[in-house]
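call fold target=Initiator tRNA phosphoribosyl transferase
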Amino acid sequence: MATDTHNDVSAVYEEEFTFTPASIPASLTATFTPSFGSLANSVRRSSRGLRNRLHSIARDAAFVERVRAAYGVPVVTNARAGDWYVDPARRQGGVYFKSTDGHVGEWMFSLRRLNLGLLGVLEGAGGRGAIIVDSTRRGKRFPDSLSKTIPIWIAVMNKIVIPSQPSPFLQNPQAVPDSEASSINKKLQGFVDDFLALGLDLTPIKRVITKPLRPIWITPDSPLPETPPVFEEFIPLLLVTASQMVKGGGIEGEYIQGAGDDHEGWALESGLTPALFWAHHKALLAARNDDGLLELTHAIVSSTTSIAGGGSSLVKPTSDIYIGAVGAEGTDSYDIIINCTPTPITAAAAPNTAGKCQVVPFPIPEGKKGTKFLRSELPGVMAAVEKCVAQAQEGKKILVVCASGNEVAPAVALVVLCLYYDDEGRFRGLLTVEERAGVDKAYIRRRLAWISASRVEANPARAALNAVNSFLMERPA
């Protein structure tokens, strides 16, 4: 089966990609003499149609596949842009390292995005390493996620696991000047201290990282080994920028560097997602023009069920709090379901052994509207949640769901963890007024770390977390 799949994918990868030639619309030249800038902008817009984007993505995905074959280690994608370049069936997971955490002067080790799920991938690979795929738009060789955010993470992990050895920020000289590397190194110990303050069990980290982690940067211009290399002295993280760098400030042409970037803008019209693209890539890449492609994508999207089940994640160290997507409630039995979507869930959809599953409706809109709703409605909704949870006891299973399982649900689960669970993850009942006075940002941050470590994809918005902080730290007048 694996061989058949490989051959099928390779056949698609090896085809000659065709692009729609850029042209200047007749309407632009019929009424006036355009400037060079107007012509360039028009051609650029024409060349950046959906068809050229998908063919650019397919071309870059072919390169990523060659890297995977050359090194023979698992592939993970960096969320959003990276997701477009690897078929979901051929990757072993995902991470979320934001480029903004590596911007000049804003370097940080995110306590909201711990990316500890990468440890499971490395452990499964037996210490041989892993590939992380991302891309960036024209004008840069590497996204900041690959040149700085991940190397910062590597340095922090190395310092935690091997404190006796020097573990500096490992610099990519093509992307990071010496002065910036020096400034990052000065911040590393503070990042380590912040991570240790979360109080997480370090045993899983030390079990997997038995040798120093080291980044290796790979671009489409990099030579690839003929046989998979073995690295004896370190565990490699192969940081792959999928797209060919387009130099200069002129017209880009039909190939689009970083075509998967900012897909919230270009994919919005069609409704296309990475999963849908890879499920239908042969038909999509065969479309002859943008109009036909857009019609096809609309047909694919409209025939796809909008609510897909996703596995739920146990938030450790608890034994009874789960987070999942709508649809995950059918995968197990729960005593309480906190439903953060407009989609009704009936108790019959998820009966527990006693047949008394309680569903608490909490229909929060997605996006910024949801954040405002969360801030205004959280006190009232949590009062309803408390009536259910207060009747529970340790061992009663609670599931919190939202559309993706990664945005709203983690924020609401965080409130439950803060109000009902002690520092060891044991159910203790609702905090008293006196105990709640001890809830501060550090207290909340430790429980958020449980979520980040247990559900890699969890990514509640900063504004949502601010709403949670405001609710939990509000003191009675």
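return ok
The beta strands are 75-78, 94-95, 130-134, 213-218, 235-241, 313-314, 321-325, 336-339, 358-361, 398-402. Residues 1-10, 38-44, 305-309, 348-354 have pLDDT under 50 and may be disordered.
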